[in-house]
Amino acid sequence: MSTRLSEKQLRSKKQRVSARTGRSAQVTRLMPTPLIAVLTTLLCLLVLVPIAYIFLASLNTDAGVAGGEFWPSQFSFESYTKIWTTVGLGRGITNSLIVAGSVAVVSAVIAIGTAYVLVRFTFFGRLTVLRGLLGLQSIPGTLMVLPVFVLFSSAGTYFGISVIGSRWGLFIAYLTFALPFSTWVMVTYLRGLPRELEEAARIDGASNLGILFKIIIPLSWPGIVVSGIFAFLLGWNDVLFASVLTRPDTATAAIALQVFSAGQEGGAIPVYSQMMAAALVCAVPVVLLYLIFQRYLVGGLTAGGVK
Amino acid sequence: MEITRKKFLTAVGGAGALSLALAACGGNSTSSSTGSNGKVDGTGKTLTVLFSTKPQYPQEQQAWFKKTADKFKQETGATLQWETFPTANDEMTRIQTSVVSGTGPDVYGLGTTFTPTAYSTGAFVKLGDAEWNMIGGKDKFVPASLGISGPDDKNQIGIPFVSRPFVMAYNTELLQNAGIDKPATTWDEFSEHGKKLTSGDQFGLAIAYKDNFDPWKFIWGMSIQAGNKLIDGKSVKIDDPTVKKAYETYFGWLTNDHSVDPASVGWGNAQALAAFAAGKAAYFPMTSPLSIPTLDKSAVKGKYKYALMPMIPPGATSRPPNGVEAASILSGDNLVVADYSKQKDLAFAFIKMITEKDAQSDYYSIFGELPTNADAAKALNNDPMVAPALESAAKSVATPFSGAWGDVQLALTNVAVQSIPDLAAGSVSDSDLSSRLKDAQSKSQAALDRAK
Amino acid sequence: MSIEATRKNRRTAPGRSAGDGPSRKSRKRKGVTERNRPLWLLAPGGLLMTLVILIPLALGIYMSVIDLDQYTLRKWLSTPFIGVENFIEAITKTELLRAIWISVSFAIISTVVTVPLGVAAAVVTQNAYRGRAVVRAVFLIPYVLPSFVVATVWKTMLQPDGIVNTVLHNVGIEGGLWLNGPQSYWTLILVEIWAAWPFIYLLALAGLQSVDHEVHEAAALDGALWWRKLRYVIFPYLKGPVSLAFLLGTLNHINNFTLPFVLFGAPAPADVNVLPILVYVTSFQSFRFGLSAAMAVVSLILILIPLFIYLRAVKLDVHEDGVKK
């Protein structure tokens, strides 16, 4: 094992590296700073130009947006106050946060358990399960929406549980749709983790669950956070299932926003400015949550390595 | 029924949970008790109604929902629960899932052109004399508005709620400046006016070539005025010369007359309206009085009026003998009652309530939606702004009542969609147009052949 | 037990040391993985997926072999069984195959472009600097905006007289027609890329976190140029996550309905008549529910075949050391 280094060697090398480069951040640098600056600027522009358009449109009049104006001829912040009553955006955001948030947490928990078994244990059909999970990911939603509805509504008829229109129904649906993906994210992540640690723990007499909780989970935060983010966004962005599984009280933010896409035949101009304002407002909680959780994206091994 | 169930279960492997799915069938109607005063007693019951949302009037709609629910509670003792859908897609998904599972709203507000499809599902209550009586009689409605309630008088499911007839808006100032004293009444005249009104960056006409709905309405209108109803018994008539002439006229405004903004190949109805509102176009056909709020806030405030769209087909100075005097498709919303509803009496009581004269006048004053109640419509005749629309409503003609109409409409729009690159390039060749029409004809005919 | 301890045992990059295989196997023989497997951990996910995906999928497949349309919808349980008729019609009489081709090619092109974008974004936000959190958040925004808003915005900007053509005109290029005709295909790709690259970014970001600090140090010691370090040291770590991202990104593009629907409307121009639009039109404008289910099933099958070939090729689902179980 030529690449393995003893603790002592490692330490001395590290000192030399530090001496040579000055700061340890320099060591992990992946690109020269000017290049980072250029790429970052380009990518930010790519994102921000259309966002700027959305923002300007949210301050414009509907007719102005329809007429193709980029710079509004008159500015108004009215849309940002109107949206709260137009579509009950507050209630929509609350519902979305509750549903998508719990989906994120629960799917991450289930996914890490499932992935742990799939990565670390052999059993008959393991590969089939792994591939099947990706196969499930390719089923078009349009094929599923009617059967899912029929199934959920019959739960009401036969068991007296009203699933349709409750947050539970939506939660179960999104949780399930998120699982194949979350599981795979965890599978790829867990595979990168060293086995030696687990095996040492096992020799020390740790149980499977013990290993999962004491070793796997603490090492997997970036994976958990990413799979949680995706599960969250799946619930946050979905319109198809929410449109049949929710009722006014339980409508999600995406459904509330959908109202703005209503194009009346031969009638008025769509309320573009409120549409744009609401879209930006809805992005805020997600971006904030992301800002809170993104620190864990540097967790795991790197955090352990960097002192 | 039992046999099918078994077959079905074996077919899919008899998974236990599947039997859950079999809730679908039936739906028994238990009628509400009718009190001695003839009123429906719905105490303790809940009636669910599905309506489209009105993002332009959010608070007004909430207020109207509440007001109507309160009144309904007072009259019947029942609770009214409103549900809304934003787009036609969502509505269709809701209808599809409800029909299959046999659960869902009791009353639906449907777009008129969707009524034939709803009828063909057989999932909505057919209105006999008893039902019409519960609503307050057929006579209370504007006669033309009943035209798309069912295939014939005896088989109707739709109760007209609002009317949304199409008219054209014109810029009075621009017409006056060009020396045109009254809006066009034939399509040829309309084309002429278009040319005359075009100069510089001002265009004669605002046409939404890329709209998902507008194009087929023009083509249908010009065709029926020339005597072609597009569906005649068991055959589709898109390959008829009248249809081709209609497309040539419709495209010709841009390609031959140059009286339309070249950018309009990318426009939907909203963009065309915006162009008219900015004073950049003199005529804006295929709009409705719902555009009043937008126009009154725009550069053309006080300088626009509505008129009927021409009713003399292109290339003619008078309507041919078999031509139909059609000002607009019969457009608006119908109410239908679901067959699976367990409280049909309540549903009809609700429909009676919101189609009464005062309720309809009130609805108009809030949302600008034209009444289908004859008395309420009559009361509006004095308003010069909406009079043309009311006249258009009276001269509206129903699109063919066929389960295949959706496909015809789709095929007609598709001809326009696929011609847009040619339009942008400046001309649609005769051979391309013919082959697109042929394709549209065969697809529509196939759909009609399936119709039951 | 600290993480420090593992560092001694770490290899420079996953999948490098071939000599590790046998030793691992011998350890396994001591009887850790074969017995005592916590297979019950698979139960919650398995149960949910059976109930909410597999049973509805079976119902969906059942729908594809019956003559389900608006006339029979209400009595769907007694709707005549017509076997493969829907499938034959879907393949021979509709534009299904062309739609699948458009969808798949558009999806692959979009993914191929988003991968370098996403990886670049992950790499440039890897090192901490003041304001990095903000940049990371900015990168997430396109993914968070609802599809129909993204589509509406781009549709407005890409109008024939819209802002894009105006800007292009000013620099001497005629933009032409973006939302119809042959160019619409590239419009779809462009907008899809804009909306979807953060997906790759997030997965690549997670992948970067599994790079051990030591690896950085070793590379620094060798004095490797930054791009050699990226190429030979860092990218091998990203292979797994990015292969997964590539696959899932492509599948997501194929199934994206809202974006093309709002951009181009239905019926769609022939060049962007993608699969979800075709299925939608068949379902909700022609009301041929059975036929549209058959279309969905055909496309599912046609997508699954390359999917499994891909899975074999990239070995996503076997252990990194290539030992098949």
In terms of topology, how is this protein built?
The complex is a heterotrimer of chains A (307), B (452) and C (325).
Chain A: H1 7-21, H2 25-28, H3 33-59, H4 62-66, H5 78-86, H6 89-120, H7 126-137, H8 141-159, H9 167-191, H10 195-203, H11 208-219, H12 221-237, H13 240-245, H14 253-258, H15 272-293, H16 300-305
Helix pairs in contact in A: 3-15, 5-15, 6-9, 6-12, 7-9, 9-12, 10-11
Chain B: H1 2-11, E1 46-52, H2 58-76, E2 79-85, H3 88-101, E3 107-111, H4 115-121, H5 129-135, E4 159-163, E5 167-171, H6 172-177, H7 187-196, E6 203-205, H8 214-225, E7 231-232, E8 235-236, H9 241-255, H10 269-277, E9 281-287, H11 292-296, E10 304-307, E11 328-329, E12 332-337, H12 344-354, H13 357-367, E13 370-371, H14 374-379, H15 387-394, E14 396-397, H16 405-425, H17 430-450
Chain C: H1 3-9, H2 20-29, H3 43-64, H4 85-93, H5 96-124, H6 132-144, H7 147-157, H8 163-170, H9 183-208, H10 213-222, H11 226-254, H12 258-264, H13 275-284, H14 289-314
Helix pairs in contact in C: 3-14, 4-14, 5-9, 5-11, 6-9, 7-12, 9-11, 9-12, 13-14
Organism (chain A): Arthrobacter terrae
Protein name (chain A): Carbohydrate ABC transporter permease
Keywords (chain A): Cell membrane, Membrane, Transmembrane, Transmembrane helix, Transport
Question: What does this entry show, briefly?
Answer:
The complex is a heterotrimer of chains A (307), B (452) and C (325). By secondary structure, chain B is of the alpha/beta class.
List keywords for this structure.
heterotrimer, A: 307 residues, mainly alpha, MetI-like fold, 16 helices, disordered N terminus, disordered C terminus, B: 452 residues, alpha/beta, D-Maltodextrin-Binding Protein, domain 2, 2 domains, 6-stranded mixed β-sheet, 4-stranded mixed β-sheet, 17 helices, 42% helix, transmembrane (chain A), MetI-like (chain A), Carbohydrate ABC transporter permease (chain A), membrane (chain A)
